[in-house]
Amino acid sequence: MSPQSLFAQVRQRLAVGLSLFSLLANFGAPATASAAEPIHTTSPIKHVIVIIGENRSFDHVFATYQPKNGETVWNLLSEGIVKVNGKPGPNYSKSAQYSAVDSTDVGSGTYSISPPEKTIYTNIPPVVAGGPTTPFLPTVQLAKEIEPGQLAPGYYRDLTIGGTGLEAYTVPDTRIPNDLSLPEGVFQLTPAVSYNDYANSPVHRFYQMWQQADCSAATSTASNPSGCASDLFPWVEVTIGAGSDGSSGYTTPPTSYLSTGEGSTSMEFYNVSNGDAPYLKSLADNYTLSDNFHQSVMGGTMANHIEFGYADSIWYSDGNGNALTPPSNQIENPNPQPGTNNWYDDDGYGGSGGSGGGSYVGCADLSQPGVPAITNYLESLPRPVNPNCDTGHFYILNNYNPGFNGDGSSSLSLSPFTIPGSSVRHIGDALSAKNVSWKYYGDGWNVYLTDPTFSNPFDTYCNICNPFQYATDIMTSASNRTQHINDSQNIYEDIKAGALPAVSIVKPGWPSDGHPASSKIELFEGFTKNIVTALQANPDLWSTTAVFITFDEGGGYYDSGYIQPVDFFGDGTRIPLLIVSPYSTGGHMTHTYTDHVSITKFIERNFGLGPLTGRSRDNLPNPKTSKTNPYVPLNSPAIGDLFDAFNFGK
Amino acid sequence: MRSRSLALFLPFLWMVFSIAALGQDKSATVAGKWQISWEARFGTERGTIQFEQAESKLSGNLQARVGSPKVTGAVDGNKVSFDLAFQGPPKPFTLVFTGTMDGDKMAGKFEIKGMTDGYDWHGENAHPTSYTWTAVRQPDRSQADTQETAAPANRYYCQQVLIHNLWIFFNLKFIITLHNG
């Protein structure tokens, strides 16, 4: 052995020894956050980062994912619905979609979540073009200015390409081969439409999503006890779409598939086995992917971010914690208008005099529109589910602005679609009570502070995504706002400075959040990669950090997974969840039933917090399953706390 | 015969110039103070614009929570267009307003210069926002001043119309007289 190689060996062993010493020294050490007191954690995880993208279901992204090392997955490929090349598989009919009838002349004549007179589509309605005709941003320079420091190198160009070249919401998406004669189920969007092209976005509002899932106790089985068939996606798109109030330009019942501007957008999927979503796939290959993680509310952006932050839904109040009945035209009414098929009475924004906007429900009252369909279903299941609606509370179902601007002033005068400040206890309260540091990092926050109505094109912030902006105790305190809400640019400074809080929630802005029509998955990949890369560049921090990468909801895209009802509000379809940490490596698949509140439960268990309130969803137990079916909880309703997604014994 | 032709031609020529001159004065008077509101992506933004007007050119500034940008624009008949040039943050940007004026009200649409707009969450469908705006003239001192300056202009306009009509009446009568010989 030469002196050089001996020296190299000594150096190598010293390095390994120092690394081990460092790891042992760090094990059980307090978070490097600003907290003064050492923080006890249940696991080696001292830092939790939650990155939430927008609007992609599990099958939509991971339709053809093939896990490694003998792991199994439930997706379109494993179900035989499609082949690895994206073409129809032997069980393609499992994804078949139907039309139905929900009118005043059928059944109860009111809203139904499992409407009758189903007829299988020979061809699903054609997809309607959507998204920008030309890219939102003309130059890379402008892209860098609107998302400064937010995307990994190489991704800024993606903001300047991918326009559809088609007039949005009025013509068929002719980029899709055979758009006018698509078969009855799912179809691969790429490569005819490039992975880097913009595309349309399907409806994903509360009552619409219940109908898309098509759940009925009558079709309940042992392997599918909720009886959800997930077979009315295009029908909902072309009968009601995103609402009946005209905010999207649709004031009258549809007369063709073009009328609601969507067609069968919901049935699109990408192919990760053919190069789509390469970064998300690489994370799945190297860390842990869940194929049973769900959006926690049937519906959209706000409701799902709220459920994560509060483990509950919030309700209309006087802003001081006293429940009130909202104006009647703000109460959602999904009952069909006479003479129509599924054209809701009041759904959306606008209504009479422009001040209406059905978005609340008093779900404890069976006389309220829409309530009987869901409540009766929940109570008729083999294991009846408590709707968990308090008397006199009108819960928010769809997007409404928070009652505060970024500077803490009231926003109620800016828009009628605004919910007064909430006094419901949230995860931030629980963390603060235990002196555990936390921050919400919102892309565009600094610009938003000067621009609450979003007149500034550089204002990329998402106000309806920040659960803490709905909280009176955070927004009426200047110190709380400063301490707990930052621009997402700040997370990079905090990582470098060793000041990352124990819990971080990171939200990309609209250009990079992955939302169809306004963004692309590729851009969310660039946003996520930038953060993961920054963390991995700091080995000490990386060794004690868990990153949860997920979406707010499935965006109205079809998914073949099991849906477990847990209360009046959800769950909804599966969405991707990637668990990225040194303790979740190896391309593992986790099948435990979980939803957004499972991340909340992880935080609570890790930092010793306990459930947020006596009624919050984090009180639900962890699932117990049979050996043959890890997906369906036998003790329903139940959601996991994600501890089983890690290998803390390594 | 020649004197008769000249008698017909001169009043006709005068009428053409008269009408052309009247046409130049048709641009609406925008000058003054206006309360403007526009529907941005997530709510209604409000402010006050003090317009200065030099014939068809507009200038002035906006006073609003979102800033105090300079206003430049033009008016053509009842069609109004103006730019609000914001300094940011983080970078300068311009909102381009177009619309029409109807008495003491204006309304129209606006867009972001050089960019396609973002998205509107209301329908949860990522449809492009329909950017609209309205403005109402404010009855303050500056407006009163404007009305005082506008009133003579209006009076002048009425006088012109009156003279114009008298001339037409006179010439038609003259022509008819000539024809009747």
Could you please describe the fold and organization of this structure?
The complex is a heterodimer of chains A (about 650) and B (about 180). In chain A, the strands form seven sheets. Chain A has an eight-stranded mixed beta sheet, with helices on both faces. Chain A is α/β, with parallel strands linked by helices and about 650 residues long. Chain A has helices at about 5-25, 60, 140-145, 205-215, 235-240, 280-285, 300-310, 370-380, 425-435, 445-450, 470-475, 480-485, 490-495, 520-535, 540, 595-605, and strands spanning about 45-55, 100, 120, 185-190, 270, 290, 295, 335, 345, 360, 395, 400, 420, 440, 485, 505, 545-550, 575-580, 590, 595. Chain A has one domain: Alkaline Phosphatase, subunit A (3-Layer(aba) Sandwich), CATH 3.40.720.10. Chain B is globular, with a radius of gyration of 23 Å. Chain B has helices spanning about 1-25, 140-180, and strands spanning about 30-40, 45-55, 55-65, 70-75, 80-85, 95-100, 105-110, 130-135. Chain B has about 180 residues and is α+β, with helices and mostly antiparallel strands. Chain B folds into two domains: about 1-25 and about 150-180; about 30-140, Lipocalin. Mean pLDDT of chain B is about 70; it is low at about 140-180. The interface between A and B is large, with 60 and 34 residues.
